[in-house]
């Protein structure tokens, strides 16, 4: 750097001696030296106190940005973890919902089958009771018919014979006759 300044100073002196117009552009050599010394002093103070302060602020800024990047990366990883957990919970909830629906469907089928079997059993009980009632009613009607036939036969025989017949003996006779008829049928 000193070599460049000394070269400029030498050129400035030689040009000034020759009388060219370069002196209008280049400053006086004493002013140039004074400016270089002032610049060196200012540069020394800036280098000694301002650059370290600027470097400290840049380093603190860099550390803050680095910390923010680390926090952002941590937040990103945490968010990804939460997303994965959410997806796993969602899949679990879906499978649980499917299982519950299947259980409900199976229970509905079981209830329907139970109701059908109960209804069929109840219907068969009603049919059986109706058959028993019909058989009882038939037996009662046959008994009444037998009694009626026996009474009519005895009344008719009394009118034909003209005297009173023994009702108990005649009823026994009619009962045997009707029993023989039933066996034949």
Keywords for this entry:
single chain; 185 residues; 4 helices; rod-shaped
Description:
- With 185 residues, the protein is mainly alpha-helical.
- It has one domain (2-184).
- Helices cover 93% and strands 0% of the residues.
- It has 4 helices and no strands.
- It has helices at residues 2-18, 22-25, 29-161, 167-184.
- Helix 3 (29-161) packs across helix 4 (167-184).
- It is rod-shaped and about 190 Å long.
- The model has no long low-confidence stretch (mean pLDDT 83).
Layout of secondary structure:
Elements: H1 2-18, H2 22-25, H3 29-161, H4 167-184
Helix pairs in contact: 3-4
Structure in a nutshell:
The chain has 185 residues and is mainly alpha-helical. The chain has helices spanning 2-18, 22-25, 29-161, 167-184.
Average pLDDT reading: 83
Query: What Rg, in angstroms, do the CA atoms define?
Result: 66 Å
Q: Structural class of the helix and strand makeup? A: mainly alpha
What pattern of helices and strands is seen along the backbone? Answer: HHHH
By DSSP (H or I, 4+ residues per run), the number of helices equals 4
**Number of E strands:** 0
Distance between the termini: 149 Å
Low-confidence stretches: none
Query: Which percent range describes the beta-strand content?
Result: under 5%
User: Could you state the oligomeric state of the chains shown?
Assistant: single chain
* Largest sheet features: none
How many discrete domains?
1
Helix content: over 70%
Shape: rod-shaped
């Amino acid at each position: 750097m000193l070599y460049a300044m000394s070269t400029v100073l030498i050129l400035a002196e030689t040009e000034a001696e020759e009388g060219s117009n370069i002196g209008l552009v280049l400053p006086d050599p004493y002013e140039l030296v004074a400016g270089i010394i002032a610049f060196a002093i200012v540069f020394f103070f800036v280098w000694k106190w301002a650059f370290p302060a600027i470097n400290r602020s840049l380093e603190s800024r860099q550390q803050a940005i680095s910390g923010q990047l680390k926090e952002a990366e941590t937040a990103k990883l945490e968010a990804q973890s939460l997303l994965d957990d959410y997806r796993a919970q969602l899949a679990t909830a879906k499978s649980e919902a499917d299982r519950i629906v299947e259980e409900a469907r199976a229970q509905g089928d079981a209830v329907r089958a139970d109701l059908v079997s109960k209804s069929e059993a109840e219907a068969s009980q009603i049919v059986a009771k109706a058959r028993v009632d019909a058989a009882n009613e038939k037996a009662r009607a046959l008994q009444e018919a037998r009694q009626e036939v026996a009474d009519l036969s005895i009344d008719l025989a009394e009118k034909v014979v003209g005297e009173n017949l023994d009702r108990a003996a005649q009823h026994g006779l009619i009962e045997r006759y009707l029993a023989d008829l039933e066996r034949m049928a």
